[in-house]
Amino acid sequence: MAAALPASRGGRPTPGCVCAAMLLAGVFLHLSCSENPVGAPRENIPPETYLSLRPDSALRPSTSRLHIHWWGDDPDGFVAGYFISFDGVTWNFTRSTDSVFACTFSGTDTTFTFSVRAVDDQGNHVYDCASPYGPEPFTDLNGNGKHDAGEPFVDLGLWDPTPAVLRFPVVNTPPMVRFVPGSDVPDTTFTVASFAWTGTDADGDGTIAEFRYALNDTLDPASWRSLPRSQTFITLTARDGIRPGDNAFYIKAVDIAGAESPIIRMPRNGRSWFVRVPRTDLLIVDDYGPVDETAVYYRSVLDTLLGGRYRDADVLDIKYGATSTTRGIFVPPYVNPTLIETFKLFRVVLWYGDNNPTLDLAQLSLPAYQQAGGRILFTASFPESVIDPRGGITDFAPVDSISPLLITFIPAGTLLEPDPSTPGYPVLARDTKGTPVAFVRALYRKINALDLYRLAPDPRWNGRPVVAVLSGDRRFALFSVPLHRFDRDGNVGTLFFELFTREFGLR
To answer: For position 55, what pLDDT does the model report?
Structure first.
């Protein structure tokens, strides 16, 4: 408070008192003008923006997937949202306070700059289509990509004039490629081989741009061929560069930044696989387990057929190395397409088996081969497992069913006689060698097929059971007896000649 002024005599202030009062009033007036009057509006203050990266150090090399957090603080209001940018030029609005970004590389390693500006909610309530960061966001009710009357927008106010910025190096992890377990190419094949692999990338499998493979030569850049990243299986033939003799397959993955995985090789451990070129148009499928002279027998029958045309016929041994749970070592891991495409290299397949033929392989491969024009002669005895209500042999052979009753003993001298509907074939006779023929079953042909051979009458069985049928298109002959045990008179060679020329159309 100001002190009381002395009064002059007569009740009027003295001149000194008047000057003091005027000075005091000026001080009060100055103080009153230097501060906002009570109730006057304050100017809007822009928000501040903060951000962080997980992992928490922005200088720590990371992968290309980045989880970034940000937040804003407005001292005189509320934050309405954020503008974010990776180049400082193009900004996008969001209400989120974090996101995971998959960064696209322009080189093996790179540094990214992330900027974020908080914006407050104190706008002018007018849609702004020309703000420094592009049009204000709105709800596009009709989905036409532009603002129309009646569509609500986010009314933005002031944005942080100094955005929060984070610069961080990102290390690109090269991709990896591996062969699928169990897909190893056999040690020996014909001019068909298949390969399967998987590609992975720590930065996300989507960053793999392509796969590149090569046959035999990895030094010449022209040897590498590209495959889309969606393709992880390939079947190669002679047209693709598979050559007679030793071969090796190489593959690598390349990511979007150009980083390459280590090259992997099939076969593994620096080995090669051997490729045989078909020597004739006939393939012998050896499905015979016992160690005896059967393989020699079939080769000898073919030696003189058609003027020795099949003297050097190729053999695919599908029984060698087989166990109760694994297939033979020369059977490719992918029946479809590898085995089927292998069969297609030949015009005729002669498949002979023992008392336990590999019917699952026949079921998976022979229908497609026959549909492609292949000719098949299949001879074997059939065990109990062939009687399968789900199909089995009926899926690939010209039979509707096969008898559940076994003919367990066919004595020496028993005759196989051609059916009257298919005349011109020689009579075959059971030889006198080895153990008795067992596991023989009667065949019941499909409606469009032909009965080819019957057993001659004998008290051990009823009537004349059919033991060989010919498909309606005359491209598949099935015998439920082992033909190598019915050549007492040397007539199997004549049978082959008649089948190959009359039915299969060989000349």
So the answer is: 53
On whether both 54 and 202 belong to a single domain, the answer is: no
Evaluate the CA torsion angle 346, 233, 267, 334 in order and state its sign: negative
Residues 371, 230, single domain; the answer is no
Among 228, 253, 107, which residue's Cα sits nearest to residue 172? 107
Per the structure, the complete domain to which residue 194 belongs is given by 176-275
What is the rounded distance in angstroms from the CA atom of residue 330 to the CA atom of residue 471?
29
User: Given this model, what pLDDT does residue 393 score?
Assistant: 85
Q: Which residues of the chain have pLDDT under 50?
A: 1-35, 56-62, 389-390
Sequence-separated (6 or more) residues with CB below 8 Å from residue 501: 306, 507
Report the C-alpha dihedral over residues 308, 314, 320, 324, rounded to 10 degrees.
Answer: -100
Of 129, 100, 124, 162, residue with least CA distance to 44: 124
Edge-first strand listing for the sheet containing 225-228: 225-228, 208-215, 249-255, 264-266
How many CA atoms lie within 13 Å of 242's alpha carbon, on the beta-carbon side?
A: 22
3-state helix, strand, coil in the chain (%, to 5): 15, 30, 50
Using alpha carbons, select from 347, 382, 357 the residue that is nearest to residue 475. 347
Query: What length does the chain have?
Result: 507
Q: Are 410 and 434 in contact (CB under 8 A)?
A: no
The CATH number linked to 427 is: 3.40.50.880
Could you give the number of structural domains in the chain? 3
* Cα 385 to Cα 222, 246, 267, 356, distances in angstroms: 52, 39, 36, 9
Residue ending a domain, choose from 222, 246, 275: 275
pLDDT for 19 equals: 38
Nearest residue to 273 via CA among 252, 244, 251: 244
Backbone angles phi, psi at 497, to 5 degrees: -60, -45
Stated pTM of the model: 0.74
Alpha-carbon separation of residue 503 from 396, 450, 471 (angstroms): 18, 12, 10
Residue 49: CB atoms within 10 A of its CB come to 23
CA–CA separation, 160 vs 48, rounded Å? 6
Buried b (16+ CB within 10 A) or exposed e, 115-142: bbbbbbbbbeeebeeeeebeebbbeeee
What's the DSSP call for residue 500?
Answer: I
Q: Which of 461, 455, 458 is nearest to 418 (CA)?
A: 455
* pLDDT score at 107: 56
Report the Cα 282 to chain-centroid distance in Å: 34
How far is the C-alpha of 170 from the C-alpha of 209, rounded, in Å? 18
Residue 228: its H or E element:
strand 225-228
Among the three residues 119, 153, 171, which one is the final residue of a domain in this structure? 171
